[in-house]
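ARCHIVE ENTRY
Sequence with per-residue tokens
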Amino acid sequence: MKQMLFEERISSLRNRLPENDVDAIWIVQPENRRYLSGFRASDLQITESSGSLLITDDQCLLMTDSRYTEEATGEATGFDVRTYREGPVEGLIGLLAEGNPRRLGFEKDYVTWGLHQELEKRLRELSAPVRLVPLSGIVEDMREIKEETETGALRASGKRLCAVMKGAIEFMRPGLTEREVAWKVEELTREVGAEMPAFSPIVVSGPNSALPHGVPTDRILREGEPIILDLGVKLNGYCSDMTRTVFLGDPPAEFKEIYGVVRSAQAAALEAILPGIESTFADKMARDIIHEAGFGRFFGHGLGHGVGLAVHEGPRLAPRKPVTLKQGMVTTVEPGIYIPGKGGVRLEEMVLITNEGIEILTPDPRVYKF
């Protein structure tokens, strides 16, 4: 069953090659590589690869070095695994010489300039030169619509994340530092059975909560101040993402108002999301409520982003670049208001778009009704 799923994905990708005017494609992006092959290894840094895929009309090849050969052979069962000894470019050149493609598509957003230059030089030296064709989003577009196995994995990841959020909120008390809470989150992530955090936990309090992606510090948690917890976990490779804003004790009236505005904005967007609407419309529903309440200039980011094998992927919910939302997409809905020097509020749910609306994949009830 699992192998059939990868075969269907490869078949779908092959159908896209002619319309992109290529007869082979080279896949280096880690999540795309895993999506197509099942090979789970990650890349430690941008200039170091654990492997890449070469897919043609009649071949599925996985190139890697000796560190990953056994792992790749066991996981990418539908691929012919080749071990290179002189680096990925020489490994790819050898395979291209075997298959003799003329136009090789590559992921232009993930191949470094240095790697591109090296590869282009070697391709010109072949007896039958191969032309490089830059491609963008060819696999990412496929990943936007989640299959049944993926939605199941995302539900399970969201359930684990709810347990982590519950534990983190119960752990918090005045006098702890942001860093101490973040360390507890990482401990809880493993205790609930997740593989790892999907990203470094965001735990920011008081004025620091005005930083949408602030880094936990040694600042001490205080009563009445907003504390933003933006957390995510990975389970079976699939990410989850949710945010709660918490107060230890009774918050001042100003933050009760801000919290109520953010909650209303999120509720309006959640109600608006249906298959067939534009992503910009969902963003506008939330943004208009925040603007009408007088806080428009304090909501600077988009409403949400897709979640899957990566914690940030398509579709994006933002004021520009509309995308038609479709059944099977998974996205976050996370409006926020951030007042410099004072603090901020963000609420985030991860949702699956169904034929009737949405299914919330992070069903944690910890919200206030001020």
In short: The first strand starts at residue 24 and ends at 27. The chain has two domains: 2-143, 148-360.
